[in-house]
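Lecture notes, continued. The same structure-token format from the folding unit now serves as the input rather than the output. Read the line below as a description of shape only.
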């Protein structure tokens, strides 16, 4: 089997409401999605998606995905997409770094491999837990009243996991955490996401002030060096996501004890192939995981679900999915959807969901 054609589509995915990162630093209203269709000489077609959370959140640029695919396409054309490690190596040689640009090609190759084997991707990867995975909401930085309103809205949809944005103001952050904890229901999973919004002293002040609440923080500081510097000075569990980009990052976090949780964002780390290695490092070191689409449609959510299904149920907290936060649906009625706050693994071979091509418009580029 060989890759014969790669078609690239650009789609805008408007958010249901404006979204602010922690501390109100950055505002997002629309996501720039890139859809990739890979065709083969065996008649099997695979789909991938790359949707960064805006252009200014982390080094991941929507137009950069499409430029990266243009650079890499001659090097992957003619390869067997089922041999995902060969495709990965070709992309890494053609374009060092730029992991977010490689993710949609990797995703489409896994989709083809699963279809060829007659297995869902999770089963093909050797996992395939059918335990429904809780969806984590994302509660943007708002007033305490608005935070309660948004959490209530998600609860009404069945959500039991919530990522609550904080960061930027110590007193306000402490008050927000205490308020959410007083509002928390039994069994709910709350992750307080700072999005790198604290300095070292701010992080320590909030963590010490809320120590009795035994809460979990995500990405409290800008860098791994910052997180390492304050690690001996507090007792709060830490999740790292924005500083978890490469396998070297994962190895350092595990080796140096910088975090108790990995937040694996598939587009950021370069797709399923690279994410699976991070999963294994986490499991080998007793580190739990959240698995997340960086943003995007039900295709990106489904990819995250497949990786989550390869993680033992005891080690996966939740899957963050974006579909309830966007107004556009490129695969109406297809793929895993919110059922009482949970996602269920598709049984169909491959990814388990493809877009309605008529909703994508004409491709912005075709290679092959």
């Amino acid at each position: 089997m060989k890759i014969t054609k790669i078609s690239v589509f650009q789609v805008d995915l408007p958010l249901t409401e404006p979204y602010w990162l922690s501390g109100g630093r950055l505002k997002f209203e629309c996501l720039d999605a890139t859809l990739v269709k890979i065709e083969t000489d065996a008649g099997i077609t695979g789909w991938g998606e790359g949707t960064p959370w805006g252009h200014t959140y982390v080094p991941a640029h929507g137009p950069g995905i499409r430029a990266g695919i243009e650079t890499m396409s001659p090097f992957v054309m003619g390869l067997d997409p089922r041999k995902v490690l060969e495709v990965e190596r070709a992309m890494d040689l053609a374009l060092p770094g730029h992991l977010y640009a490689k993710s949609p090609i990797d995703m489409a190759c896994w989709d083809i491999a699963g279809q060829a084997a007659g297995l869902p991707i999770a089963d093909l990867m050797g996992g395939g837990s059918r335990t429904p995975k809780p969806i984590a909401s994302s509660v943007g930085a708002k007033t305490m009243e608005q935070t309660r309103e948004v959490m209530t809205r998600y609860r009404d949809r069945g959500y039991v996991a919530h990522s609550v944005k904080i960061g930027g103001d110590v007193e306000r952050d402490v008050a927000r955490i205490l308020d959410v904890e007083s509002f928390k229901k039994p069994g709910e999973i709350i992750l307080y996401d700072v999005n790198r919004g604290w300095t070292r002293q701010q992080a320590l002040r909030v963590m010490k002030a809320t120590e009795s609440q035994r809460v979990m923080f995500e990405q409290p500081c800008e860098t791994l060096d910052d997180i390492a510097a304050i690690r001996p000075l507090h007792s709060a569990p830490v999740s790292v996501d924005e500083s978890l980009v490469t396998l070297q990052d994962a190895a350092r976090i595990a080796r140096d004890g910088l975090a108790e949780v990995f937040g694996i964002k598939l587009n950021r780390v370069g797709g399923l192939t690279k994410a699976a290695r991070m999963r294994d490092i986490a499991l080998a070191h007793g580190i739990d995981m959240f698995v997340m689409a960086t943003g995007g449609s039900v295709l990106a959510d489904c990819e995250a679900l497949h990786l989550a299904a390869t993680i033992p149920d005891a080690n996966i907290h939740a899957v963050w999915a974006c579909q309830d936060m966007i107004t556009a649906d490129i695969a109406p009625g297809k793929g895993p959807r919110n059922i009482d706050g949970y996602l269920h693994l598709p049984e169909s071979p491959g990814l388990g969901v493809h877009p309605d091509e008529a909703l994508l418009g004409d491709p912005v580029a075709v290679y092959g």
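Point for the exam: The chain has two domains: 3-118+357-367, 123-343.
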